[in-house]
Amino acid sequence: MTQGKVFVADKTLSGPQGDGTLPVCPPSYEEATAGSSPSHSYGYQGNGEMLTEFTWQDKNIRRIFIRKVYSILMIQLCVAVAVVALFSYCEPVKTYIQANPGWHWASYVVFCVTFISLSCCATLRRRFPWNLILLAIFTLSLAYMTAMMSSYYNTRSVMVTLGITALVCLSVTVFSFQTKIDFTSCQGVLLILSMAVCYCGIFLACVVPFGYVPWLHAIYAVLGAIVFTMFLVFDTQILLGNKRSTISPEDYIFATLSLYLDIIYIFSFFLQLFGMDRN
User: Fold this and answer.
1) What φ, ψ does residue 278 adopt, rounded to 5°?
2) Confidence of residue 278 (pLDDT cuts 50, 70, 90)
C-alpha cells in the first residue's frame, strides 16, 4: 500500500475537462527509492505545477503493512491448523491419504512451483489478484504436506506440538519486536546453518535405509528447529523495517510467505522431536 502527500502549488489548475483535477499515479517502489534520499519528488507539468512527496519510511505506511501481513498470516495458519486437525481426527481421510501417496508428491510439485514463482518473480507477487491466488495455492499445498506428515503421529502429540509451536512463535515474535539486536545483519550465519541442516538431512536420508538412528534424527530435528526459529526472527525484523535490512511494503505477499514457511518448518521439526508414532 502506498500513501503520499500531494501539494498543489496552483489551485487554479484545470484538467482536460476543466474540473480542476489532474490524474496522479503514485510512484512505484523503484521510483520512490531512486537517488540517495529515501524520498523522491516529482513534477507534473500542466497549467501549473504539482509536487508529490513520498517516502517508504513513513511509520503509518509501515504499520499498515505489518497489519496486512499478519492478517493474511493468521488466515494461513487457521487453514493449516484446520487441515491438520481434519487429517488427524478423521479416520477415513487419514486412511485415504496414507493409501494414496501420489497426492503428497503432487502437492510437493505445486508447492515448489508456487514458491519459486512468488520468490523469484517480483512482478508476479505484486500483481493483484494473481499474487493472492498463488499464495492461496501455496498455503493449501504446504498445509496438505504438513497434515499428511502429521497423520502418521499420535493425535494427542500432534496437538501438543501445535501448542508448543504457537508458544515458541509468539515468544520469538515478541522478542523480535522488542530486542535491539539486529539479526538482519547475520545473513552469513543463517546461510551456514541452513547448509548444515541441508547436509544433515541428506546424510540422514542416506543412513535411514540401513537402519533408523534415533539420536541422529533427534540432532537433525533440534538443529532444524533452531535454524528456522532464527529465520523467524530474521523475517520478523525485516518486516519491521527498523534494522539494517528491510523489505518493501509492496512485497507483503513475500513477507507473509516467509513467515508462514518458517512457522510450518518449526512445527515440522518439533513434531519429529516431540511427536509419538501412532503405533
Assistant:
1) -65, -25
2) low
Contacts of 143 (CB under 8 A, 6+ apart): 79, 80, 83, 84, 264
Backbone angles phi, psi at 3, to 5 degrees: -135, 150
- The answer to whether 48 and 64 are in contact (CB under 8 A) is no
Give CA–CA dist 125/112, Å, rounded: 15
Residues 6+ apart with CB under 8 A from 154: 275, 276, 277, 278
Residue 79: predicted pLDDT: 92
* Residue 240 to residues 135, 205, 212, 217, Cα–Cα distance (Å): 21, 37, 42, 35
φ/ψ of 158, rounded to 5, equals -65, -45
CB 153 within 8 A of CB 277: yes
Residue positions counted in the chain: 279
pTM confidence score: 0.74
**30-66 residue pLDDT tens:** 454 444 334 333 333 444 333 333 454 567 877 888 8
Domains of the chain: which residue ranges? 5-55, 59-274
Lowest mean pLDDT among 5-9, 92-96, 106-110: 5-9
